[in-house]
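Researcher: Following up on the earlier apo prediction. This time include the ligand. It's zinc ion, with the SMILES given after the sequence.
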Amino acid sequence: MLESHKEATVADRILNVHSNSIGNWDWSRAPSGRATNELTELNNLLSTVSTSDRPDSWKFSLDASGIFTTSTMSNLINTLKYGINSRNLSLPRNKYVPQKVFIFSWRVIQLKIPVRYELDKKGTDLHTILCPLCDQHIETVDHALINCQKVASIWMQLLGWWNQNSYTISNINEAIISDQGFSHNSTGQSLWQATKWITCYILWKHRNLKVFSGKIWNPAMIISEIQTQSFSWISNRSRKKTSIAWHQWLLNPSFYVAPPPNRSGVG
Ligand SMILES: [Zn+2]
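Model: Understood. Below is the ligand-bound prediction.
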């Protein structure tokens, strides 16, 4: 408040004399009363500060490099919110799915979802490590999301829906990482991968609903949820010119991937 020139810079007011910071004040009136104490306090603080002749710059104090990047910020948020450091992620992002689906997919390939086999390995006391859906096999991540007969039938229908009958998905790496299918078209690969990630996400959600809420495993309902939810997430994240029509999505999503040539001539 007492500064005469409100636009004055630190360099105008703090002189560096033989490595000591000296105040070079220009007050509108001499400090008195409480301001005197504040000035003494300020001088004490300045005695520990050394200035230089370099221009001012910003420093991002949350990273050792001092440099702000959106990926550093994003990593910090992920670490706080999800307890993971996405700097270690080997999974490339997919722009068609929400962050929670990406994080879930990452957890799946790291075997970090709490299936009974993994919980048991960590010493959790469970009355069974058998799959809660079929009650016949040990519930590993591969079993829970891919190989259990209850989920395998859903994958079969999904492959049919996408005209991908020539492929099989036999483990989580094929569901999450592999880019088999649509190798000629990168948009197609991304949409197909997004659908597979969303499928895993929804299968796990329904597994949990069965285990924790006693909800009945209903394949028709799950397929329908995969179709509506993937449509909603993917179409909201698609650019206008690649906008997706619901009935077409339901009928044949691979339509968006490789439209047949001379489609206009078909009528
Ligand atoms: Zn099972």
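Model: The chain has a mean pLDDT of 86.
Researcher: Noted. I'll compare it with the apo version next.
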